[in-house]
Write a structure and sequence with these properties.
alpha+beta, Alpha-D-Glucose-1,6-Bisphosphate, Chain A, domain 4, 4 helices, 8 strands
Amino acid sequence: MTTATKETMISKDLANKKILVVREFDAPLEKVWRAWTDSELLDQWWAPKPWKANTKSMDFREGGRWLYYMAGPDGERHYCRFDYETIDGPRSYTGADAFCDEEGNDIGELPNMHWNTKFSETATGTKVEVEISFSSKEDLEKIIEMGFKEGFTAAHGNLDELLAK
């Protein structure tokens, strides 16, 4: 096991209304793919501590949906849903991400995002590249203001711990 911490690279492409995320993990492609596509594993790393991700339902297939919530330390819950569009396992998947109510209905108050997530083998593990598109520059900025960079970076640290087990 490597003790060096990998860095989550997050950059804004404001002109194209995108956030680009690149992260390498010290684990084989299949193991990383499972961590991103299996609800039991996602629940163990997706939320930045002290928050916890909790899957309400997951149907990982094209046309399927992941409905989950982030539970905060004071009992608060923020629901999200991810609608899977394309899946090319274990290489990529795309889908729409939206904040929603507990039944999965879009609440329309917070920006929706489109994710294009790609996985590739490297000499030492697996690289994950995520391109997140927004309908406006304002939506992109709102997600950044909400702590996306810090939260997703912390979640990747959780994933490092999970993959090391």
